[in-house]
# Entry
Amino acid sequence: MEISNRSYQKLADRLAPKSNTPVNCLKAFAIGGGICVLGQALKNLYLSLGTGEKPSALLVSVSLVFLSALLTGLGLYDDIAKHAGAGTLVPITGFANSVAAPAVEFRTEGWVTGLAVKMFTIAGPVIVYGTLISVLYGLLYWMFA
# Structure
């Protein structure tokens, strides 16, 4: 059975679930903002414990990555992401989730061929290109600053 592109598009539009964009935006804003508030609260906590400004920032990053990976491993991060959408893509937590999720999914295939390989499926290119761009930026800064 042949179907034209136009007919297919009409069918797809009719069958696709309808999205409530304003509500979705509010959820993303609230949950993404909540993650940022948590980060600020952690920073204030670490500062009150006597760490300096830079160590506190480092501890916040480590804490958010740990919490994100933990929630992914427990299967809770996806439940939060269902409601928050892009709100869970706050860079550090979204990256931690993208590294942990494939590892959790493929852990039954073994430590090396499952967990280790799949964990770097998404993280690998980010690390490689992030390192490359930072080196290029550093060279440009060194040459022109």
